[in-house]
Design brief:
By secondary structure, this protein is an alpha+beta fold. It has a single domain, classed as Alpha-Beta Complex (endopeptidase fold (from Nostoc punctiforme)). Helices cover 33% and strands 25% of the residues. The radius of gyration is 17 Å and the shape is globular.
């Protein structure tokens, strides 16, 4: 008997306003350069793998984000495309448990290399694309290859091929950013964070 899909998760495509996001759109006109998810009917708490502090792109990992993190600083608003994905009660519970597991795993790191080469695997390393790819797989979205090998436009296509349509809209920032998000980070700390992340990624990759 086919399970009834009467629960929902939201997959959220973000037109990132960061320097990296703007730079990516100079190379490729595709708008959305970040992807996250939310369990809320009217998403305000977004879950993903991303930077923890705006000025420290290599201090990244599992995060809860808010609208004001996306429309940071003096940006008044941000453009999102939200797909409401139906799932069964069993799928919803498994996705919830998986997100809770990730949130409490201190060994997780950010897969920086996978941002440029989707499908590049490192032990306990994720980025926004591999994380959401896994969520889509758990939600039963049909795929023809491994979940972590899709980029954002390909995941949007997967959702549309599954008969889902995203709702595009511009969302105003709501109050301050997440605590610590706008703390300034200098060049020397960024160099240290860059080296630390790369050494850890390379070491884990070599021992897979």
């Amino acid at each position: 008997m086919k399970e009834k899909k009467d629960h929902y998760i939201n997959i959220v495509l973000v037109k990132s306003l960061t320097v990296l996001g703007r730079a990516a759109r100079l190379r490729d006109p595709y708008e959305y350069t970040h992807i996250s998810m939310s369990f809320e009917d009217a998403p305000r708490d977004f879950v993903s793998f991303a930077r923890r502090r705006h000025f420290a792109p290599f201090d990244a990992g599992f995060v809860h984000e808010c609208l004001s993190d996306y429309a940071y600083g003096t940006n008044p608003e941000v453009k999102l495309k939200i797909f409401r994905v139906p799932v069964s009660k069993k799928q919803y519970s498994k996705i919830r448990a998986y997100v809770d597991y990730l949130e409490n795993d201190p060994k997780l790191i950010f897969n920086f290399y996978g941002m440029f080469r989707p499908g590049f695997r490192v032990w306990k390393a994720y980025n926004c694309m591999s994380f959401i790819g896994r969520i889509l797989s758990m939600a039963g979205i049909p795929m023809d290859r491994r979940f972590d090998s899709y980029n954002i436009p390909e995941m949007e296509e997967l959702l549309e091929n599954a008969g889902l349509s995203g709702e595009e809209g511009t969302y105003s920032k709501e109050g301050p950013e997440s605590p610590g998000y706008m703390d300034f980070v200098g060049i020397f700390e960024n160099i240290f964070l860059f080296l630390k992340l790369n050494v850890t990624l390379i070491n884990r990759r070599m021992h897979m």
